[in-house]
């Protein structure tokens, strides 16, 4: 709003009548009005000793895209199961993976929301045309496309986040990598049903060997076997491969061969 004055002295009357008109609302009375200051920051560390930062304490950004709550919840889930594991005897170094897995996404999120907010608040004729003419025309047209709607949903819901290069991720089987979020498939049975139990578990899509069943049973590691359907292949799973699932629903290990030795080595490295 050129010429409206300093942000600290703005009043509701300074709000452009065109904004109210475009919103198609009638404001009869204003009880409270204030300006909003946007910050885009990410802390240098998510962990220092026994102190951990998450949510808005670790990263703060524009509300553009509505990503703040999802990101904070993602931080909490990532940290919670690791804290529980350490309290039950896992090495303290497991907690170092919290920062390694979450800080990169936080930095990327802050950069993207900053760009969106800059576009939304930029001044000038070109920016004004983009906001009032281009976006209202192009976005509804794109929203009619199923691929665009799916992309938007997957982005806003953050289900595309992966930890493929994280210290707890290993292997690949089919199109699923260690560090990927477990693909969701409802084909006769819901492969997310076992995830209600926030614990380590093994998934096999196809047939599990008797050796794998014995190994998992001997370690009280839940093994869930799903009869093979083409829908699993379409989602990226490899038939008869072994997928070790973390308590936060991410794939820790994906192995299409030597499953038992891979599982044993993985857990040995966690000690």
Compact overview of the structure:
41% of the residues lie in helices and 13% in strands.
Question: Would you give an account of this structure?
Answer:
- The protein has 271 residues and is of the alpha+beta class.
- The chain has 2 domains: 116 residues, FAD/NAD(P)-binding domain (3-Layer(bba) Sandwich); 101 residues, Glutaredoxin (3-Layer(aba) Sandwich).
- The protein is 41% helix and 13% strand.
- The chain contains 8 helices and 12 strands.
- The strands form 4 sheets. Strands 6-5-12-11-9-10 form a 6-stranded mixed sheet.
- Helix 6 links the parallel strand 9 and strand 10.
- The termini are far apart.
- The mean pLDDT is 87.
Q: Key terms for this structure?
A:
8 helices, 271 residues, alpha+beta, elongated, FAD/NAD(P)-binding domain, 2 domains
């Amino acid at each position: 709003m050129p010429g409206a004055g300093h942000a600290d002295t703005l009043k509701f009357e300074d709000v452009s009548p065109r904004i109210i008109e475009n919103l198609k609302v009638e404001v009869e009375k204003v009880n409270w009005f204030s300006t909003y200051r946007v910050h885009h920051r990410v802390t240098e560390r998510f962990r220092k000793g026994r102190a951990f930062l998450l949510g808005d304490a670790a990263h703060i950004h524009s509300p553009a895209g509505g990503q703040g709550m999802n990101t904070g919840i993602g931080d909490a889930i990532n940290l919670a199961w690791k804290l529980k594991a350490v309290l039950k005897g896992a090495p303290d170094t497991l907690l170092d993976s919290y920062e390694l897995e979450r800080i990169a996404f936080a930095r990327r999120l802050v950069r993207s929301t900053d760009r969106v907010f800059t576009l939304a608040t930029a001044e000038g004729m070109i920016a004004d045309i983009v906001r009032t003419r281009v976006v209202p025309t192009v976005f509804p047209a794109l929203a009619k496309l199923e691929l665009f709607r799916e992309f938007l949903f997957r982005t806003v819901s953050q289900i595309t986040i992966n930890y493929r290069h994280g210290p707890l991720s290993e292997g690949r089987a089919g199109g699923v990598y260690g560090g990927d979020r477990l693909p969701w498939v409802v084909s006769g049975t819901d492969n997310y049903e076992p995830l209600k139990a926030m614990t380590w578990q093994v998934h096999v899509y196809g047939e599990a060997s008797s050796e794998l069943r014995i190994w998992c049973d001997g370690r009280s590691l839940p093994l869930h076997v799903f009869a093979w359907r083409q829908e699993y292949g379409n989602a990226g799973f490899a038939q008869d491969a072994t997928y070790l699932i973390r308590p936060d629903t991410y794939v820790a290990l994906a192995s299409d061969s030597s499953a038992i030795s891979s599982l044993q080595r993985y857990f040995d490295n966690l000690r």
